[in-house]
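TASK: fixed-backbone design
INPUT:
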């Protein structure tokens, strides 16, 4: 089926212990979120690009940096503006010091995204420099995009996180991590909510909220073997248009409906009780209201469920539809075809959309526990010959 594209990540997921995975550290070549928030921040922060002092600390500026950021699917049904999942579909970007602004874009969005100061990546790099009290120099940007543009898969959040990470690395500044999550604060300030930027930064399934003082994130367990099938229409969807149809007031009945299902969603993931996802991804706050914008939504969701998916929902503000399946047992790459049903679900979703005249394509992928990270830098982070930090592209 030429509609189906098997995606692959730029590298394997991190294998660090949880306390190391939970720290965002550019010096280690990756953004890692913070159980260091809980007790281990001090010694771990000193090993990373972040710090737990609450202050911005001078480090070593770089001449160039290459970063990778994953796609994300927000809301997951009932978790409106609150929960999102990172997917193994990646944008990569190299930013290097130059004598003038230069932007090269290939892949998704080529010829459609701005290639001047209005580019979201450029403004995010500028925000990173401003956040650490530095002036942004002229830069050259080389972007290769695999995340579909304006389809509800976090392309804007990927641009924000890529720009912020690249800007911080180039500036050489270490920013507060434990108890501060400065990276998350700045990203949410630009995006307005955490459901895409939190998984883009930290990977996996992330919860996000505002405490009244700052943005806070927390990781949800991702069941092993989970597969993601995404139907991506050819037409784009604008978030501001999708939000315009939402009502200003909700009933207690609607609120309770979503609260109960969001609780079941988190519990289903944490306990690997995937049978509950059928109900746990139902929604009353935004999907019914947006169905008039997306005539394919209900038909594609129903087709996915009838074909054996655990669940299906509108991805972010749409128009993409996301379905989740899992394997019967064992590693997904060593199973017999009968043990896996993602191809069946993908075909059913594509046919349902075709039947109502909505052309599109299917991505087959999976969640990634890895978020935004550095692929390469110049000068490198490695002390070559003594300490060599390896990533998918080689030594960082």
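OUTPUT:
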């Amino acid at each position: 089926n030429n509609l189906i594209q098997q995606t692959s990540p730029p590298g394997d997921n991190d294998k660090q212990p949880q306390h190391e995975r939970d720290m965002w550290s550019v010096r280690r070549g990756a953004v890692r979120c913070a159980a260091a928030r809980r007790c281990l921040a001090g010694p771990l922060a000193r090993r990373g690009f972040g710090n737990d002092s609450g202050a911005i600390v001078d480090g070593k500026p770089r001449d160039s940096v290459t970063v990778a950021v994953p796609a994300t699917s927000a809301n997951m049904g009932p978790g409106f503006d609150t929960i999102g999942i990172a997917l193994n579909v990646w944008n990569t970007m190299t930013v290097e010091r130059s004598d003038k602004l230069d932007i090269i874009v290939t892949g998704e969005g080529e010829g459609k995204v701005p290639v001047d100061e209005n580019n979201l990546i450029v403004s995010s790099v500028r925000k990173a420099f401003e956040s650490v009290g530095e002036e942004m120099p002229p830069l050259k940007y080389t972007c290769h995009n695999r995340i579909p543009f304006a389809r509800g898969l976090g392309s804007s959040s990927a641009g924000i996180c890529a720009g912020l990470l690249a800007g911080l690395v180039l500036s050489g500044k270490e920013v507060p991590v434990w108890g501060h999550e400065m990276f998350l604060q700045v990203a949410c300030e630009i995006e307005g909510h955490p459901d895409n930027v939190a998984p883009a930064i930290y990977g996996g399934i992330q919860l996000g909220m505002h405490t009244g003082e700052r943005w806070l994130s927390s990781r949800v367990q991702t069941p092993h073997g989970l597969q993601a099938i995404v139907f991506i229409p050819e037409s784009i969807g604008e978030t501001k248009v999708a939000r315009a149809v939402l009502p200003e007031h909700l009933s207690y009945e609607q609120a309770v409906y979503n609260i109960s299902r969001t609780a079941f969603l988190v519990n289903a993931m944490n306990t690997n009780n995937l049978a509950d996802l059928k109900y746990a991804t139902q929604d009353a706050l935004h999907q019914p209201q947006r169905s008039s914008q997306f005539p394919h939504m209900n038909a594609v969701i129903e087709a996915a469920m009838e074909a054996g998916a655990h669940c299906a929902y509108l991805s972010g503000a749409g128009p993409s539809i996301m379905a989740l399946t899992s394997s019967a047992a064992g590693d997904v790459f060593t199973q017999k075809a009968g043990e896996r049903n993602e191809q069946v679900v993908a075909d059913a979703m594509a046919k349902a959309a075709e039947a109502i005249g909505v052309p599109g394509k299917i991505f087959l992928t999976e969640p990634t526990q890895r978020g935004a990270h550095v692929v390469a830098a110049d000068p490198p982070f490695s002390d070559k010959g003594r300490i060599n930090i390896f990533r998918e592209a080689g030594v960082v």
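COMMENT: The first helix runs from residue 18 to 21.
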